[in-house]
Design goal:
With 225 residues, the protein is an alpha+beta fold. It is built from ten helices and four strands; from the N terminus they run H-H-H-H-H-H-H-H-E-H-E-E-E-H. The relative contact order is 0.14.
């Protein structure tokens, strides 16, 4: 089952993204402080509950605290693979899909999201499955959640230079962002200074050679107590 939603998501997020006047690097110390403060409106559990409810009124600052704040939670494990990933892969590899297949996809993907709730690709699968089942309300909720993730990442930079890197907390988001922006991976990945991931791009009309992703939080997480 091939995801068919990259172009859709590009259109879906373009309007909100264009409202961002300038890029802003995440202040991780401030984010850690705010998401740990139970009295703060930016407390992580409060934001995550709003995310689960697909709250479309979240501000860009709230979206950023949600996404980057996850990297300060005890469940954050950027290099782990969900135990349910193989089950999901088997569902996705089916040549024909019926109602039971889509229901299975939703059930298994929900388990995968419990291990990393901000996978844009998984959101794509779920949107497709819900629509095939005629559950358009649920599909719209998944779309809203996907836009929250995307908006947070795209608010940090354009990826063209190290200075304007996209900040991510999981390497899977790097490849998802490429797809969303309409680019194809060029086949080479390079880790620079244990801070940046550089992904080359296939030939494109913008003549971009590659995108930079700041992966600081992935490495810092190894030093957490």
């Amino acid at each position: 089952m091939k995801p068919l939603f990259s172009f859709f998501f590009l259109l879906f997020t373009a309007g909100a993204f264009c409202q961002t006047e300038e890029f802003s690097k995440p202040d991780f110390k401030l984010i850690e402080k705010n998401v740990s403060d139970k009295k703060s409106p930016l407390y992580y559990n409060t934001l995550f509950e709003r995310y689960k409810k697909a709250d479309s009124t979240m501000t860009i600052e709230e979206k950023r605290h949600l996404y980057y704040g996850y990297s300060f939670q005890k469940d954050y494990s950027p290099y782990s693979i969900s135990d349910s990933q193989e089950d999901l892969n088997r569902v996705l590899q089916k040549q024909e899909a019926d109602k039971k297949t889509f229901e299975k996809l939703i059930k298994v993907s929900d388990k995968v999201l419990k291990d990393f709730p901000f996978s844009i690709r998984i959101k794509e699968y779920r949107i497709y499955a819900f629509k095939q089942l005629g559950k358009y309300k649920e599909a719209r909720a998944e779309e809203t959640q996907a836009s929250i993730i995307i908006d947070a990442i795209l608010s940090t930079g354009d990826g063209v230079t190290q200075e304007n890197s996209f900040y991510v907390i999981n390497t899977t988001n790097e490849y998802e962002i490429l797809d969303i922006l309409g680019f194809r991976f060029g086949g080479e990945q390079q880790l620079i200074e244990h801070k940046y991931d550089y992904l080359t791009l296939a030939e494109n009309s913008y003549q971009y050679k590659g995108f930079y992703f700041d992966v600081t939080r992935l490495f810092e997480s190894f030093n957490l107590d």
